[in-house]
Design a protein that fits this description.
Number of helices: 8
Strand order of the largest sheet: 13-12-9-10-11-14
Order of helices and strands: EHEEHEHEHHEEEEEEHEEHHEEE
CATH architecture of one domain: 3-Layer(aba) Sandwich
CATH topology of one domain: Rossmann fold
Radius of gyration: 20 Å
Mean pLDDT: 95
Low-confidence stretches: none
CATH class of one domain: Alpha Beta
Distance between the termini: 30 Å
Structural class: alpha/beta
Helix content: 10-25%
Shape: globular
């Protein structure tokens, strides 16, 4: 007997897929509803039911969520796995009759925009990579990187653009930071306390972590940054700080994600189970387990999900079909 239902968004991506696997591992009796903008995803086999929805910025996104809530009774939580969905759900939370695990809308609007993040952190005295709008760039740096203000996953970045001033102000300019890239996940509990922190040095491919090594050298200084962010207010549950550690050992954050991050499935198996903490607090109203992080190395490989004797993917909207993972 299922205890209740949870919606996980963006299950076509590695963040949503990790969330699904973590919930299935920790709470196998929960009924999982997966949603995505695609007709079919490779994670459908992890869901009890799957629905296609519009993009988060589409005017019909919120109404599509409400249609699912009407059809699927007893949905207790919605967990967004993408930045834009987290923001849209938070902005429209009063129009949605379900608990949404997301930070406050005003905070999400800041951290969705890297330039606003820079200005916000500057006011709070929190380190963040120096950032300019292209129209304001002063050519003070030898090497630069241009990236979309609201982009993600290393998409549309330009290394050392020849004419940065020709880019529009939907981009930002930052110094090209050289060093060790690290990703730090923080969990903030309902009492607004930092419940735990977990850092990995990572290797990226197309914006996704393909190899990670757990480290703790920089947790103390990063926790100081995170505490100032939490003290300002509005952060809830999971958030992530991406940083570069330069040759002098200086930790320079360059991006903040106010959601569960892409290495959640790795963390779950190395003692930092932040998705589990979310469910414990916001579904069961329990005190979350204490984190027990351990050192470890993780890498990722491509696997096949195969449905034998199926002619059309349209029927593969749940986990009732036989499948092979190979």
């Amino acid at each position: 007997m299922y205890k209740g239902k949870i919606i996980v968004t963006g299950i076509g991506g590695n963040v949503g897929q990790g969330i699904l696997r973590n919930i299935k591992d920790a709470f196998p009796d929960l009924f999982l509803i997966g949603i995505d903008t695609s007709d079919f995803t490779s994670a459908n086999y992890l869901c009890n039911i799957f629905y296609k929805v519009p993009f988060a910025l589409d005017q019909n996104y919120t109404s599509s969520i409400n249609e699912i809530l009407t059809k699927e009774q007893n949905v207790k939580l919605i967990i967004p796995s993408t930045d834009f969905e987290a923001a849209t759900l938070a902005i429209n939370h009063n129009k949605i009759n379900c608990k949404i695990i997301a930070s406050d809308a005003n905070i999400l609007k800041i951290y969705l925009d890297k330039y606003k993040t820079f200005l916000h952190h500057s006011k709070l005295g929190i380190p963040f990579a120096k950032s300019w709008l292209p129209s304001e760039y002063d050519f003070s740096q030898n090497e630069i990187i241009a990236k979309p203000r609201k982009g993600r996953g290393s998409r549309s970045i330009i290394i050392n653009p020849q004419n940065p001033q020709n880019l529009n102000d939907e981009y930002i300019i930052q110094p090209l930071l050289i060093g060790k890239e690290i990703t730090t996940s923080i969990y903030v509990d309902k009492k607004n306390n930092i419940h735990g922190i977990f850092t990995m040095e990572r290797q990226l491919q197309n914006g996704t972590t393909i190899k990670g090594i757990v480290i703790s050298d920089f947790n103390k200084i990063i926790k100081e940054f995170a505490q100032k962010m939490v003290d300002f207010g509005g952060l809830k549950g999971c958030f992530n700080i991406q940083s570069i550690v330069n040759k002098d050992g200086l930790v320079i954050p360059f991006e903040i994600n106010c959601r569960v991050s892409g290495t959640n499935s790795i963390r779950h198996n190395l003692g930092f189970k932040d998705v589990k903490y979310l469910i414990q607090e916001y579904y069961f109203n329990e005190i979350p387990d204490n984190p027990k992080p351990i050192y470890g190395v993780a890498t990722r490989i491509l696997l096949d999900v195969i449905y034998p004797n199926v002619k059309d993917a349209k029927s593969l909207i749940n986990n009732k079909h036989r499948y092979i993972i190979y």
